[in-house]
Structure formats: structure tokens, C-alpha cells
């Protein structure tokens, strides 16, 4: 999962990235960066990577491309800082002979990976359509009111990523039990019943050993029943297999705990972001009301002959700007609520009301 937010601080645009910069999320960040850079080519962008937990090869190539286009990379942690330092060091060596050729090859590699990743949305588009078709026919009519604690609990209960991690840990537990069972004593019970018949002519070359003996003996009925016990005294292979299963179990438990913490972090972050988006909508509505009142006042003053047309025009322009900001704020609110519903694995049509 990946979360991208844009903020303006002190005249600088900060593009904050949170989550895993890998797989199809690289294309998402690349598209967002292209749109921002095309809209404001002269602005200085700062890409904040402090919330990124993993960067794969395609993500690294994208960061190189962003740095070449003038973006400043900000990172925390040993791994992310080392990646950023390597990118800066490689770009500083770009003036050496053959740098242009290496740059061309890097472009080719980057776009090859990028166009390969673009096939992912095309493949998942049909799945999304099937998922939409699988939704209930009637949209939920009741408003779902959630507090932060309820949202976190619902995410831990319904989020697919968290549930998969729990199932993997449970499977590792069973694998460890199976590997341990091979080291324990084994008990079994056997029951057999058979009939035997001896051909004396075949045994003694076609003649009976004594005159008057029958040519065959039997049949004899043989019945046996009883338990059997066994235990490996020393089998290094079974012991190593049990140790590997134990280590796999510990790794699965740690992965489950890490996934749980990551889901909680994402839910809390998205919840707070949604609250901020809702507050921005309310503030935008207040500014629209104020701009409308100022415009009405300017229009009344112009009708009375006290005001000027330029004041009315200025008030009208400000009103239209505030209305546009309100539309943007409402769009951000809907996007944040949709992202929160996806984290909680709810119906996308479910209306959510957040409590403080």
C-alpha cells in the first residue's frame, strides 16, 4: 500500500510518500510526479521518503528520474538514506566520459520496467469490474459512525493483509507441530489374517515323503494382532527440519505483528487525514459564505452608487476562487474516505461519519 500527500510549506511543495515503493505503486508515484511537475515546471519539489518502508529496483530508478528533473529527496533511516546518497553520488559523476551513454541505458531500463508495470492495472481492471459486479445490489443506506478505536478494531478484523498474515502464522504453527511429531515415539496396531496351503508334491520333487501322505497339507488359518512401537534414536535430518520449522514460525509471528502494526499505522494516518479533509471542507464552506456576503455587499454598494465596479469584480473573482477551493476540498474528502473504506474492507458505497 502507498499513500501520497502534497503540502506547501514556506513556498515549497512537499510530496510525502508513505508505505512500500514497489510493484504497481511505482507507476502511481510516477504518474503523480508527472502531473505535479507538468502543472508547475518551475516549482522546487521536495520528495519526503521518511515514511517509506521499502524501495525496490523500479522505485529506485524512479527516484533517480525525479532527482534528475530537479526534485530533492529527503529520507530517514539507514537504508533510505543510503539509497538517496547513492543516487546523489551517481548523478554527481554524470559529468564523466560515458555518462550520457549510461544515462540513456538507465532511461531504457526505467521505461522498460515502467511499461511492464503498466500491464498490472490492465490485468486488475477486469478483476475490479468483477468485484464491482459482486457488490450487493442495494447500497448501504445507514451511516456508519466510527471512532478511532472502532476503526482500528475493524481494520484488524477485516483487513485482508492482516488476516493473511495471521493465517500464515497459524500455518507455520501447524508445520512446526508436524515436524515435531516425527521426533516423538510412533505407535501403531496391526491385525492380519491369512490362510496357507503346502503342496508336498512340489516340495519333494513330485513324490510324497512317506507312503500314504496326502499330496497337500492345509489350508491353515493364521491370525495375528498386536501393537508396535518405534522412536528415532538420533536423526539429524528430522532435528534440523524441526529447527527450520521453529524458525519459520518465529518469522511468521514477527511478520504478523509487523503487518498488524503497519495496518494500525495506516488506519490511524488515514483516519487523521480524513478528519483533516472534513475540516478543510467545513473551512472552505465558511470561506465561500464569507466571500458570498462580501460580493453581495459590494454589489449593493455599486447599485447605491457608493462602490465601484472593480470592487464588485474583485469580490466576484474571490468568490469563484473560494468555490473552486471548496470543490477541491470535497474531492480530497471523498478520496480520503474511499481510501479509509478500502483499508477497513468496507463497501465503497458505505457512507462513513468519523467521530473525534
User: Helicity, in percent?
Assistant: 55-70%
Task: Catalogue the unreliable spans.
Answer: none
One letter per element, helices H and strands E, the order comes to: EEHEHEHHHEHHEHEHHE
- The residue-averaged pLDDT reads 80
- Continuous helix count: 10
Report the biggest beta sheet as strand number plus sense, adding barrel if it closes: 4 strands, mixed
Strand order of the biggest β-sheet:
1-2-3-4
Instruction: Write down how many β-strands occur, each being a DSSP E stretch of 2 or more residues.
Output: 8
Short structural summary:
The protein is α/β, with parallel strands linked by helices.
Explain what this protein looks like in three dimensions.
- The mean pLDDT is 80.
- The chain has 356 residues and is an alpha/beta fold.
- β2, α1 and β3 form a beta-alpha-beta unit.
- The strands form three sheets. A four-stranded mixed β-sheet has the order 1-2-3-4, covered by helices on one side.
- It is 61% helix and 19% strand.
- The longest helix is centred in the C-terminal third of the chain and has 68 residues.
- The chain contains ten helices and eight strands.
- α9 runs antiparallel to α10.
Amino acid at each position: 500500500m502507498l499513500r501520497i500527500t502534497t503540502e506547501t510549506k514556506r513556498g515549497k511543495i512537499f510530496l510525502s510518500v508513505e508505505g512500500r515503493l514497489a510493484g504497481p505503486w511505482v507507476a502511481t508515484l510516477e504518474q503523480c510526479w508527472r502531473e505535479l511537475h507538468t502543472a508547475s515546471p518551475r516549482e522546487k519539489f521536495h520528495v519526503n521518503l521518511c515514511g517509506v518502508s521499502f524501495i525496490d529496483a523500479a522505485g529506485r530508478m524512479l527516484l533517480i528520474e525525479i532527482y534528475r528533473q530537479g526534485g530533492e529527496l529527503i529520507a530517514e533511516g539507514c537504508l533510505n538514506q543510503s539509497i538517496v546518497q547513492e543516487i546523489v553520488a551517481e548523478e554527481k559523476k554524470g559529468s564523466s566520459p560515458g555518462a550520457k551513454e549510461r544515462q540513456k541505458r538507465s532511461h531504457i531500463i526505467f521505461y522498460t520496467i515502467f511499461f511492464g508495470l503498466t500491464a498490472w492495472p490492465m490485468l486488475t481492471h477486469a478483476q475490479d469490474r468483477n468485484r464491482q459486479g459482486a457488490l450487493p445490489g442495494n447500497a448501504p443506506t445507514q451511516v456508519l459512525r466510527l471512532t478511532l478505536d472502532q476503526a482500528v478494531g475493524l481494520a484488524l478484523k477485516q483487513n485482508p493483509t492482516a488476516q493473511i498474515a495471521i493465517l500464515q502464522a497459524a500455518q507455520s504453527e501447524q508445520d512446526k507441530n508436524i515436524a515435531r511429531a516425527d521426533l516423538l515415539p510412533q505407535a501403531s496396531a496391526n491385525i492380519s489374517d491369512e490362510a496357507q496351503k503346502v503342496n508336498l508334491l512340489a516340495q519333494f520333487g513330485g513324490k510324497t515323503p512317506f507312503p500314504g501322505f496326502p499330496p497337500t497339507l492345509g489350508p491353515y488359518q493364521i491370525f495375528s494382532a498386536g501393537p508396535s512401537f518405534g522412536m528415532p534414536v538420533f536423526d539429524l535430518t528430522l532435528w534440523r527440519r524441526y529447527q527450520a520449522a521453529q524458525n519459520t514460525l518465529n518469522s511468521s509471528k514477527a511478520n504478523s505483528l509487523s503487518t498488524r502494526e503497519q495496518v494500525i499505522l495506516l488506519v490511524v494516518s488515514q483516519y487523521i487525514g480524513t478528519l483533516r479533509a472534513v475540516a478543510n471542507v467545513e473551512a472552505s464552506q465558511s470561506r465561500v459564505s464569507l466571500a458570498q456576503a462580501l460580493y453581495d455587499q459590494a454589489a449593493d454598494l455599486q447599485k447605491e452608487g457608493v462602490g465601484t465596479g472593480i470592487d464588485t469584480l474583485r469580490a466576484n473573482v474571490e468568490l469563484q476562487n473560494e468555490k473552486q477551493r471548496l470543490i477541491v476540498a470535497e474531492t480530497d474528502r471523498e478520496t480520503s474516505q474511499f481510501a479509509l473504506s478500502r483499508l477497513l474492507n468496507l463497501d465503497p458505497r458505505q457512507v462513513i461519519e468519523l467521530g473525534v
